[in-house]
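#lab-general

N.A. 3:47 PM
ok so I finally got the sequence cleaned up, no stray characters, all 166 residues accounted for. can someone with queue access submit it? mine expired

B.Y. 3:52 PM
send it over

N.A. 3:53 PM
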Amino acid sequence: MRSAASVIALVVLASVLQGAFAANSLPDKFYGKWILDHSENFEEYLVAKDYGWFMRKMILLASVTKVFEKGTQPNTFRFKNLTSKKDTDYDNISMGEKFEAEGLDSTQHIVTFEYIPSSGTVTESHLKVGDAPDTTDTYEYTVDGDFLVMKMTWKGVSCKRFYKKE
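B.Y. 4:20 PM
back already:
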């Protein structure tokens, strides 16, 4: 009796630990190089963010590539945002852990990546250092076939950007 209960307890513990580890690591389907293919409602999103006409056009014309790679430290990943204007490169990211890094706007951000297993979504949150928490930008990533789909919402305006796997 005692041995069967011990085995059941170990199986339950292993399942819980596996679920916790899965929520703390980047799923394999996200790894790779993703090149911007097309967008839906992106200019409207930029209007909601109060970008002027000229800046919106510059952003719309920029080439963008997202890269997810294994980190240089165990159990971490690396995320690169490559654009025709500026690149960011964050290494040794652990899910759920905040870190400070330079954003595409050349200011310091508090950045957090999280994985939500129930929806298969990775979120990337950015809060400019010194700004109020209600100004946090959150980007939601899902994989749909050969596309990395990035969803963004600001003041009720949502857009999607579709990146094709290279």
